[in-house]
Write a structure and sequence with these properties.
There is one protein chain. The chain has helices spanning about 25-50, 55-75, 80-105, 110-130, 140-160, 175-200, 210-240. The protein is an all-alpha fold and about 240 residues long. About 75% of the residues lie in helices and about 0% in strands. Helix 1 crosses helix 3, helix 4 (about 110-130) crosses helix 6 (about 175-200) and helix 6 runs antiparallel to helix 7 (about 210-240). It has one domain.
């Protein structure tokens, strides 16, 4: 099994079951909902804070760095995920709330649209997976892995270029930028299929604490999808 989500890779579930209860699909679903609820909780809190303190950018940067560090710890120490995954959800929710408040101030109503579209895409991908409309084959995984890795590398290169005041057309609101965002949103959505497939196949093979880790991996994909949809909607607003 292989997935392009760094949190849900083959080694992550290659853990002996000795002394542990087995992971189940229902357990992973329950843990995923708990993590999403924690994310929404701090999202709402930080939303109010950001609106009341529009100049508190430092808190956003600190929260983002902390979330990144906790994510790395979770990926490399999966047995800690019952503790680190909820912490990540709380930190990421705070970060998303602040970012979303900024977008909402510039584009009224955009956050509600982004949340609704993210939920719609999630449910659509779940339906597609359950009905096997798109089958998760080895070639499918491999192709999506390459595409996702390519996006990560591209974003890193763009970040470096931004330090030299070099802006790429794909981040602007023109046709090229919108097309790029559509492609990235599609790739993020397809990653959900890999997450569903991996969680289902890992059930009864991995220890129970990996339910938290599986939920963490799914949350990572959902957050990525939400941010890309938010960016796409902003480009569409600017292009009117």
């Amino acid at each position: 099994m292989r997935t392009s989500n760094p949190a849900l890779n083959e080694k992550a579930f290659a853990v002996p079951l000795s002394g542990h209860k087995a992971m189940t699909v229902d357990g992973a679903i329950n843990k995923s909902f708990i993590l999403i609820a924690l994310t929404v909780f701090t999202f709402l809190l930080s939303w109010d804070f950001a609106l009341a303190n529009p100049n508190a950018l430092g808190f956003v940067l600190i929260g983002g760095l902390a979330a990144f560090i906790v994510a790395l710890i979770t990926i490399f120490k999966q047995e800690w995920s019952p503790v680190t995954a909820p912490i990540y959800a709380l930190l990421e929710g705070a970060l998303l709330g602040s970012i979303s408040a900024v977008f909402e101030a510039i584009y009224p109503g955009i956050v509600f649209q982004a949340v609704g579209l993210t939920l719609a895409v999630f449910l659509s991908m779940l339906f597609v997976y359950k009905q096997k409309i798109i089958k998760v084959t080895d070639n499918f995984r491999r192709g999506l892995l390459i595409a996702t890795f390519g996006i990560v590398v591209f974003y890193l290169v763009a970040l470096v270029l931004s330090f030299f005041s070099i802006s790429l057309p794909v981040f602007e609101s023109g046709a090229v930028g919108i097309a790029f965002s559509l492609i990235v949103v599609a790739i993020a959505a397809l990653n959900l299929l890999l997450d569903f497939d991996f969680i289902e196949k890992a059930a009864h093979r991995a220890p129970q604490y990996m339910e938290w880790y599986a939920g963490f991996g799914l949350l990572v994909t959902l957050i990525w999808l939400y941010l890309e949809i938010l960016r796409l909607l902003a480009k569409l607003r600017d292009n009117r």
